[in-house]
Design brief:
It is a single chain. The protein is of the alpha/beta class. The chain has one domain: Rossmann fold (3-Layer(aba) Sandwich). A two-stranded parallel ribbon has the order 1-2. Strands 3-4 form a two-stranded parallel ribbon.
Length: 97
């Protein structure tokens, strides 16, 4: 089952769509996401510790430190197109074009 962290749910599905298309579209997108077989990962102590470590050692946003920490803690590959993740060389990454 695919796993996504809560920042993707809040930032990608909710905030961005709300900003661009309005509240109703954002709530519909969230409803659709919730209908998929996705394991949503919430804030866990290990992720909190790792996010703090990442944030203290790199010029990276808080949200991206949480996303990177989630990938790190779960041993996942971080799939992205954000150059802000490049300094996190200890986390496996796949850069999209």
């Amino acid at each position: 089952m695919p796993r996504l962290d809560f920042f993707h749910e809040q930032d990608g599905a909710f905030y961005c769509i709300w900003r661009e298309e309005g509240e109703n579209a954002a709530r519909e997108a969230l409803r659709l996401l919730d209908s998929f077989a996705i394991d949503w990962i919430t804030c866990e102590p290990g992720i909190l510790d790792r996010a703090a470590q990442i944030k203290s050692g790199a010029r990276i946003s808080v949200a991206d430190s949480w996303i990177g920490a989630t990938a790190s803690v779960y041993g996942a590959t971080l799939v992205h197109k954000d150059p802000e993740f490049e300094p996190l060389r200890d986390i496996p990454q796949e850069m999209l074009s």
